[in-house]
Amino acid sequence: MRRQSTLPPWIEAPAALVARMLYRVRVLGAGHVPRSGGAVLIANHLSYVDAAVLQLACPRPIRFMAYCGSGTNALQRLIFRLAGVIEIAPGQPSRWLRSSVRALNSGEVVCIFPEGGISRTGQLMAIRKGFELMARRARVPVIPAAIDGLWGSVFSFAGNRYIWKSPRLLPTPVCIAFGEPIPHEKASARTARKAMMELWLLAFEERPVLRRNIGREVIRSLAGRPGTVAIIDRSMGRRVVTAAQLVAASAALARRVRATIPERRGGIVLPPGAGAAIANLGIMCAGKVPVNLNFTAGRAAAESSIAASGIVTVITAEAMRSRLADFPWPARTVDLPAELKACGGKRAMLPWLLAAWILPNQWVASLIGVSSHGDNEEAALLFTSGSAGDPKGVVLSHRNLLANCCQVSSMSILPSDATMLGCLPVFHSFGFTFTMWYPLLRGCLLVTTPSPLDTRALVDCIREEGVTVLIGAPTFIRPFLKKAVPADLRSLRLVVTGAEKLTDDLRKSFKEKFGVEILQGYGLTETSPVANVNQPHPPVTTATADEQIGHKAGTVGRLLPGMSARVVDPETGLEVGDGETGVLCLKGPNVFSRYLGDDARGQASFRDGWFITWDLARIDDDGFVIVDGRLARFSKIGGEMVPHGTIEQKISEVFGIDPGEHQSVVVVGIPDESRGESLVALTTVDLSPGAVRERLSEAGLPNLWIPRTIVKVGAIPVLGTGKLDLAGCKRLAEEARGK
Asked: Which of 138, 496, 644, 654 has CB 3.0 to 4.6 Å from 667, enough for a Cys bridge?
């Protein structure tokens, strides 16, 4: 079918030539565009060149709609007129609506970007309803589409500015995905968002980088900037490690690992720091899978993890081995410094140092012998106990890890000039991906300390190294309120929390004292780990530009680019209505595919290709996700879902309990013959059942929500990751109930 353009040939030809020189456009689902007749085309809006690439991808000519207000200059107006653009003038809705309906009735494809402007966050913004009116008035279908690959180009707002940034030297791979037509009577903001997110997922999956090997990509990144400082390790004193030194040490270790570790996976027991980075990268460069073992979970959990993963060799340091006397060290446990010395020490590293400085970065990776292909092959194995204490081996692929790094990078929330604090344990998914792999890939400076519990060391580190990004659980961040002064944290620009709910009092107190907004994110080991994140509000570029929001208090942010979500009823599995609470299900290239050696558990975690998080959540009209809690943190009593977190918060409020550095009240449900479940409150302060009943009743809590049993404990059980140890809490509650 020959396509007739709406543009004059003398404009279309050079525009198409330039677009093809700058972008390699891949098209999915072009057959979904009707061959004839009117249709409303909707797509996400990431840059000034979205219209050009859409027209390159679409098999039919497109009539575009564009805002034309007081800020539109004469050149833009001329281009609009020549291109036949339907202008959306402020205060004249009936005019553009009549023009668009007329074009649709004459059989044209009319494109409107339903976000109302270019996204300045890199995420899908709120969907406006103008496209619904157009489709219904003209009685034509809506064709959803998604554009991926243009965020980060000079024509996008990546880096908080348009145009004035370094252009990409090679043609940018862009993917456009067209979806099945939505009948006009079913077109709505909700169906549009859902369709566009799922199409964006399909387009994102086509990124060439996702087929690569994360180890090779890290070597390429490091060898491309050999003289820059990659890590400042503050484990013992202060050690500065350059990118070239990391390459050299990892290359030497890789050769040693190939010769001494015949098994597929190698264990690692090390704190955050240069040693952990070298061990992980060395094992991966050797073509094997690093397994960072949780040394805080107890002997039984560690033994289970070692046995399940088939680990024979563990790389550690003598200081760790002497400190962890109860850890089940395998017979072949080796010291990292000794291994580096055994493979030749500095003499063996010297050629790799020179290679990093002299050779193209691709050559360095090839000489080390790192495969160029990774894709869906296993890249890492992490064990998660979640909060129930049952270790699960989560198999993460190269695609999973690269996708999650690309997703966060594409939002500009963690730019390459950031200085990140790495204090989260490497066996924890956030510590593994975002305070180790991400900065090595992206070029951020990583400053490491061995423990997130040593608040004094963290404060000193932030002040002395000028740290700009802090990532951690609220449990680790709350002590800053007492142990830091504003001058200590003056360099911080971004604080992101996850793993547990960010309380309103912590968010407000931190902002009040340090002037920094804590932004909440959400993820699981199974999502590599980030699925959602709030981000700073993007700046308003012009007087006429709409204000866009990057975060909302009480939410965990919008989905990352390339992800899609459904909220379903926990019993029927059917999608719930707009804004209703249900179980959150996710899909995306960062979502894992299986648990280690547990097909039954893996199958139970997926439904029709969607990963079931077992977290209760809802999604608002702006696309922000509100997580109400873990399904395990609800009790079903008398047919009603009772939220433990809400009760905990209310008890703290009515009794004026200062949260302090650690959680003081936890509510758990234990089996009860008469009511199914009974609520027990564990608390570190003195509370009587009568006083709790009276105060909570006065506060308006339903009778079903009031715990009948109050148990005083010395401390609330917490896992090494900062999460509540729900299995430990339930054990304490059952023991107290049985007395």
From this structure: 644
Confidence of residue 502 (pLDDT cuts 50, 70, 90): confident
137-146, 362-371, 663-672: which has the minimum mean pLDDT? Answer: 663-672
Phi, psi of 155 (to 5 degrees): -90, 0
pLDDT, tens digit (0-9, with 9 covering 90-100), for 271-296: 999 999 999 999 999 999 999 999 98
Long-range pairs for 259-264 at CB < 8 Å and ≥24 separation?
Answer: 260/313, 261/286, 261/288, 261/312, 261/313, 263/288, 263/310, 263/311, 263/312, 263/313, 264/288, 264/289, 264/310
Structure tokens at 376: 């869906």
Q: Given pLDDT bands bounded at 50, 70 and 90, which one contains residue 9?
A: low
Q: 596-629 burial, b if ≥16 CB within 10 A, otherwise e?
A: beeeeebeebbeeebbbbebbbbbeeebbbbbbb
User: What confidence score (pLDDT) does residue 51 get?
Assistant: 86
What does the pLDDT read at residue 79?
65
Specify the pLDDT at position 685: 86
Q: Residue 686, SS3?
A: coil
CA distance 491 to 463: 7
Question: CA–CA separation, 645 vs 488, rounded Å?
Answer: 32
Question: SS3 of 636, please?
Answer: strand
Q: Please state, in angstroms and rounded to a whole number, the distance separating the CA atoms of residues 513 and 509.
A: 6
The reported pLDDT for the residue numbered 180 is 96
Length of the chain equals 739
DSSP state of 164: -
| 94 in Cβ contact with 67 (< 8 Å) | no
Tokens of 414: 């963690």
**Dihedral over Cα of 276, 280, 286, 289: its sign:** positive
pLDDT > 80? residue 225 = yes
Average pLDDT of the chain, as a whole number: 87
- Tell me the one-letter amino acid at 268: I
Can you give the pLDDT at residue 82?
67
**What phi and psi values does residue 176 have, to the nearest 5 degrees?**
-115, 125
Judge contact between 147 and 178, C-beta under 8 A: no
All residues at 6 or more sequence positions from 725 whose CB lies less than 8 Å from its CB, including other chains? 387, 389, 717, 718, 719
Q: What is the pTM of this model?
A: 0.86
* Closest alpha carbon to 218 in 246, 253, 189: 246
> What does the alpha-carbon distance between residue 214 and residue 397 come to, in Å, rounded to a whole number?
9
Q: What is the mean pLDDT of residues 331-356?
A: 92
Q: 87, exposed or middle or buried, with CB in 10 Å at 0-12, 13-18, 19+?
A: middle
Q: How far apart are alpha carbons 586 and 572 in whole angstroms? A: 17
Q: How far apart are CA 540 and CA 116, in angstroms?
A: 15
Q: How far apart are CA 406 and CA 554, in angstroms?
A: 26
Residue matched to tokens 């704190």: 271
Helices 345-358 and 243-260 meet at what angle, rounded to 10? 130
pLDDT at 84 over 80: no
Q: CA 352, CA 252: separation in Å to the nearest integer?
A: 8
Residue 364 DSSP label: H
Average pLDDT over residues 573-583: 87
Q: Can you tell me the distance from the alpha carbon of 605 to that of 611, in angstroms, rounded to the nearest whole number? A: 6
Phi, psi dihedral angles at 348 (to 5 degrees) = -75, -25
CB atoms within 10 A of CB 640: 11
Helices 214-223 and 274-285 pack at an angle, to 10 degrees, of 120
